[in-house]
Write a structure and sequence with these properties.
The protein is of the alpha/beta class. Helices cover about 40% and strands about 20% of the residues. It has one domain: 3-Layer(aba) Sandwich (Rossmann fold), CATH 3.40.50.170. The protein is globular, with a radius of gyration of 16 Å. The mean pLDDT is about 95. The structure holds 5-O-phosphono-beta-D-ribofuranosylamine. The site of 5-O-phosphono-beta-D-ribofuranosylamine has 15 residues, from helix 1, strand 5 and helix 7.
């Protein structure tokens, strides 16, 4: 079973996923792909001796270029872990049902264009939500609208602020994202 991770940011999720699958010899992380040459996610990959690939937005949209490096790996699953660019239609059709994303809210609430990172948590706090959480879902051509695979919740209180919400979400991500990926790979 081969998976690829796509990430644009610091890569705490990439780090957790890599660590989790070190114990599972059935799953190989074939590469960490990023649109940012300075993404922390790439450093976690390099440390774990996993191949890294950096591509531009233009390359992401030019199927032939990026696909060459991706198709060589014969991937079973592509995991978006804090990947901020929109995945083009053609790309999705090549990997139908094989791309999943992690979103830091309980979709369909607080999803869509511009809803990432702290923007999501600020919106959750402004709406005085009683709970928030994470959604792991399939990727389709609209931001954050693909079928939900799993959601995990955490309660909010009046004393919550941006920092505490971020911590609660990170904990959910760390606890549940790698095992949800593992469950999916077991079913493939
Ligand atoms: C995570 O909160 C994830 O839910 C979202 O982007 C963030 C990435 O964080 N999609 P990191 O780069 O894995 O630390």
């Amino acid at each position: 079973m081969k998976i690829a991770l796509f990430a644009s940011g610091t890569g705490s999720n990439v780090k957790n996923i890599i660590k989790h699958f070190e114990k599972n010899k059935n799953v190989e992380i074939a590469g960490v792909f990023s649109n940012k040459a300075n993404a922390g996610a790439l450093l976690h990959a390099i440390e774990a001796e996993i191949p890294t690939y950096v591509f531009s937005n233009q390359e992401l949209n030019d199927v032939n270029q990026l696909f060459k490096s991706i198709e060589n790996h014969d991937l079973d699953l592509i995991v978006l872990a804090g990947f901020l660019l929109k995945i083009p239609k053609l790309f999705i059709s090549k990997f139908e049902g094989k791309i999943i994303n992690l979103h830091p809210s309980l979709l369909p609430k607080f999803g869509g264009k511009g809803m990432y990172g702290a923007h999501v948590h600020r919106a959750v706090l402004s709406a005085n939500e009683l709970e928030t959480g994470i959604t792991i879902h399939y990727v389709n051509e609209n931001y954050d609208e693909g079928a939900v695979i799993k959601q995990f919740k955490t309660a909010l209180t009046e004393s919550d602020n941006l920092e505490s919400v971020q911590e609660k979400i990170k904990l959910l991500e760390k606890t549940y994202f790698p095992i949800t990926i593992e469950e999916l790979t077991n079913k493939l």
